[in-house]
Amino acid sequence: MRNGGSNHPSPLGFSTRAVWSGQEACPATGATIVPVYQTATFTLPEIGVTKGFDYSRTVNPTRCAMERQLAALEGGTFASAFASGMAAVAGATSLLSCGDHIIATRDIYGGTHRLFTTVLSRYGIDVTFVDTSNACETWAAARPNTRLLWLETPSNPLLRLCDLEALARLRPAGTLIVADNTFASPFLQQPLALGADMVVHSTTKYIGGHSDVIGGAVITNDREIAEQVAYHQNCVGAVPGPWDAYLTMRGAKTLGLRMRAHSRNAQVIAEFLAGRGDVAEVHYPGLAAHPQHELAKRQMSGFGGIVSFRPKGGPERARAIATSTSIFALAVSLGGVESLICSPARMTHGSLTPQQRAQLDITDDLLRLSVGIEEVEDLVADLASALDSVPGHG
After folding, report:
1. Of the listed 2, 100, 106, 109, which one is catalytic?
2. Which of 44, 349, 370, 385 qualifies as a FRET site for 115, CA 20 to 30 Å off?
3. Does the active-site annotation cover 57?
4. The pLDDT of residue 179 is above 80
5. pLDDT of residue 394
6. Is 168 left (phi over 0), alpha (psi -120 to 50) or beta?
7. What is the pLDDT of residues 266-324, one digit of tens each?
C-alpha cells in the first residue's frame, strides 16, 4: 500500500498527475524515470533497520511508485497493486467474513461472477445479483448481513450504468461500495468522488493500455480499508513484479491521450452500427438511445472505448462476422491501443453456464468491440466489410 497524497483534489490536471505522480527522480542517481528494482531482497544496514524495503513481496520501490501514481489518478489516497485484475478483486473482497452478503451488478465480468459464486460461496459468503442501474431496487436486496455492494459501471459486456451518487446516498449503514472502474478508466470517471469506498481496476486494460502486462489495483481514501487490503496483498503475495509495475506506469502516463482517442473512435463506430439495418441492437452510453445516456453525461467525462452489438441473423452470423474482420483481432481482453472483437458468451463469460448467461442477457449473438486508436475510417471500413460479407436481414 502506498499513500498517493492528500484527500483533497490535486490542483494539477489529470495528465500532469499521470506523468509525475510517484515519479520523482532517483535519489541515488538522478534517473528521471523510475528504475526497475529487479531484486527479491534488500541489504539491511543492521538487524531490524531498513531503508524502507526488505523483501519485494511486501514492498518494492518500482511498485510503490506505480501505486502512488494510480492513487493520484483516481483522486485517492492509498493504492495496493496486484498481479492481475482478479487478484485485485480478491483483495477488495478480503474485507469480508463468513456469513457476509454481497449485492452485485448482474452482468459483471465472468471471472468476477465465477469468484463470487464458486469460491466465496465455499467460505460462507453469499451473493445476490441485481439490476444496479436502479438504486431503489438495488438496496431492496439488502439484508442485515449485507457488507458489500459490488458495481461495474459501465458493466461488462452490456454497458449498463449505475448512479454512483444515488447508490451512495441510499446505502444502509455498514455497507461498503466497491466500483470496478476498468471500463471507464480514471480519466473518464472518478467513483471515489461519487461516494464509492473502493475502486478496483484491471490495470491490464486501459491503464496499461498496450496489452503487454497483467495487473490490478485497489484504491481507497479510507486508511483502515487500505491497511486491510495491504495486509491481504502481503499475506497472499499476488503482487506485480517490478517490470510489470514499470510497464504499467509507462502506459498510465498516456492514459488521457489514449482515452480521448478510444472514446472518439467508439462514438463513430457506435453511430455507424446503429445506422445499419442489419444490426439489431447497439450498446454504447454515448448514443442518445442508450437508456442511461443522461446519467453517462453527468457521471462520466466521456463514453469510453467499448461497444457491444447484436447483428441480425443470429449466432451463426455473429460468429462469421467475428472471424471476418481484418483489423479487429479476435481476442479476449480490452483497453489496448489495438482494436479487438470477441463473443462474450464463448470467451469472456464462457465460465458461466448457459442458464446464467441467459439470465444476464449475454446471448450467443452478442459481440463486443474494444475500439482502439487506429484511424477510425479504417475501423469503420473493416466492420462494414465484415458485415457486408455475411448477409443479414436489413
Report:
1. 109
2. 370
3. yes
4. yes
5. 57
6. alpha
7. 999 999 999 999 999 999 999 999 999 999 999 999 999 999 999 999 999 999 999 99
> Which residue in the list 160, 205, 276, 357 is annotated as catalytic?
205
| 296: Cβ contacts below 8 Å, ≥ 6 apart | 154, 161, 285, 286, 290, 303
Q: Which three cell numbers stand for residue 263?
A: 472514446
- State the DSSP string of 270-311: HHHHHT-TTEEEEE-TTSTTSTTHHHHHHH-SS--SEEEEEE
SS3 129: strand
- One of 1.20.1250.20, 3.40.50.620, 3.90.1150.10, 3.40.50.970 is the CATH number of 255-389, namely 3.90.1150.10
10 Å CB burial of residue 19 (0-12, 13-18, 19+) is: middle
- Spans of all domains in the chain: 2-252, 255-389
Distance CA 385, CA 380 (A): 9
Question: How far apart are the C-alpha atoms of 82 and 67, rounded to whole Å?
Answer: 10
Say which of 57, 114, 250, 319 is annotated catalytic.
57
Domain 2-252 has CATH 3.40.640.10: yes
Global pTM exceeds 0.70? yes
| Complete DSSP assignment for 69-124 | HHHHHTT-SEEEEESSHHHHHHHHHTT--TT-EEEEETT--HHHHHIIIIIGGGGT
Mean pLDDT confidence for 14-36: 95
231 is catalytic: no
Residue 55 falls in the annotated catalytic set: no
| Catalytic, out of 163, 180, 197, 244 | 180
Residue pointed to by grid coordinates 465465477: 114
Average predicted confidence (pLDDT) for the chain: 95
